[in-house]
Amino acid sequence: MKKKYIYLLIVLAIAIPLIPTAYSFWKSGAFDLVNQKFGPIFWVGVIVFIVFILGIVFFATKQAKKALQPKTLANGLPATATVISSRQGNMKISMGGVNQNYQLIIEVNVTNPQGETWQTTMKEMINITQIGIFQPGVSFKVLYDPNDKSKVVFDQTKN
Question: Membrane-spanning regions, if any (predicted)?
Answer without folding.
Answer: 40-61
